[in-house]
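Colleagues,

Please find the record for the two-part complex below.
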Amino acid sequence: MDTALFTANNVWMMICTALVFFMHMGFSLLEAGLTRQKNTVNILFKNFFVITAGLLLYALAGFNLMYPGFEEGATGFFKFAGWGIAPPEGGMTAAYASGGYTWWTDFLFQGMFAATAATIISGAVAERIKLEAFFVIAILYVGIVYPIVGSWQWGGGFLSNWGFYDFAGSTLVHSVGGWAALITIYFLGARIGKYSADGTSNPIFGHNMPLAAGGVLILWLGWFGFNGGSVLSADPATTSLVLVTTSLAAAAGGIVASIFSHILYKNYDLTMFMNGVLGGLVAITAGADQMSTGEAMIIGAIGGIIVVLAIALLEKLKLDDPVGAIAVHLFAGMWGTLAVGIFGNMASTKQFMIQLAGVGIVGAFCVLSALLLVLVVNATIGLRVTKEQEVGGLDDAEHGMSAYADFSVSKK
Amino acid sequence: MKKIEALIRKTQFEDVKNKLHEAGVTFFSYWDVTGLGNENKGRVYRGVSYSTSAIERRMLSIVVNDDFVEPAVQAIIEAGGTGNIGDGKIFVLPVEEAYRIRTGEKGGDTLN
C-alpha cells in the first residue's frame, strides 16, 4: 500500500477517534439536561470519571483483554495479552491492520469506545446512586466485562467464528452497557417521588432541555466517528454509505418516535423525539455497512417505536431510568443486532439465528456479571445515598457545591 | 391606611399595572407565587400522565390611604378580570402604621 493511502486512512481513523471522544460531551449534556439541577455536578463528575478512568483502564488491561490475539479459528472465550500498552513489531506501518490505521490509533479509537459502556450506566442510575458504588461498578464493568465480551467478536473470539455480525457495537457496546444499567436500577430502586404509595407514576422533569438537545445532536455527530470509524479505514464507498445509513436511521427514529408518542399520549414530547433519534442511531449501528438507504430508514423507524414502547414498559415495571438509557441502548441495541439477520446484504434465517444467539449469550454474560458486581457492592459499600442526601441533592451531599451557584431562571 | 393584597393572572399584570397608575397608585410590590387551587390540567411527560393543581399567579402588595382603597380595588377588578375561573382574589387588611425610612416620618403622608 502506498504511504499516501495509509496516511489518509490513519487520518480518518484519528478524526473518528476524536468524534467518539466528543460523544462523551454529548452523553454528559444529555444526562445533565434530563435530570434535576440539584444533581448536575454529580452527573458531570460521573461522566468525567468514566472517560478518564475508562481510558486508563483500557491502557492498563482492557485493550489486551479485548484484542488478545486468539489463534486462527480458535473458539476464543478468554485470553489476556498482558499489562500495559506497547506497539507490536510493525505496528506503525501499513503492514498492521491492512494499512487502515496504526496501532496507536487502534488503541485510542477502541479506548474511546470502551468508556461509552459505563456512560450508559451513569444515566440510568442518576440522582440516587452513591458515588463510590458507581466508581466500583464502572471500573470493574469497563475494565473487565466490556473487553471480554468485545474479544468474543472484535478480538476474533468465538462469536466472530460463528459468523455473528455487529458492525460498530449495537450489542457489544450499547447492549452491554444497557444490561448493566438494567440490573443496577433494579437493585437501586426508583428515585424518591417517582412512584406514589398507591402505585401511580409521577413525572420527574429534566431541568434543562437546551443542554439535553445539544447533547443528542452532539451524539449524532459523534456517531459519524463511531460508525464511520468502524469501517476501520477510509474506504470511500463504505465510509460514505455508513454515514448516510447512520443519519437516515437517526432521522427516521426521531420522526417516528415523536409521531408515535403523540399518537399514544397526545403530546409533542421533545424528550421522546430525542430518545427516538438515539434509538435510530443505536439500531443502525450493528449493520450500518450492510443496509440500503430504505432499510436503514426502516431499522431506524422501528428503533424509534421500540424506544417509546420500552420507556412505557420500564415505567410499568417501576424501573426508574431518568434518561431513557435502557430503552435506547439495550432495547434498540438488541433490535439493531437482530435486524442484521432480517434486512440488508446478510439477511437470512441462519444469520438471524446467529444474531439471536449472540444477543442471548452476551445478555446472559452481562446480566450475570452485573448481578455479581451489583450484589457485592450493595452488600459492602451500599448502592444508594441516604434519603436526606437524595432529597437535598447529590451536588450538595457528595460535592458540597451547586451547578448554578447564583444563576436564576425567570418563569414565564 | 390599608394594605391590598391581590392575586392576579400573570397575563393581566400589565393591564392591572396601567389601571392602578390611572387610579393614582404609583408604587407597589409584586412577586410571582405558586398556589394550589381548583384548576386541574392533564399533562404527559415521557409517557407518564399527571395532573397539576399548582397554579402560577402574581401577588401584588399595595399599601394606600383609605380614600385610595376603593379606586385601587376597582382598578384591579376591572383590569384583572377575564370572566373565567381563576381570575384571582383581592384582600384588604388594616395597616397600623407606616414609616419612611429616609426621614423617619410616619403616617399617611409617607404613602404619597
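The first helix of chain A runs from residue 3 to 33.

Comments are welcome before we finalize the supplementary table.
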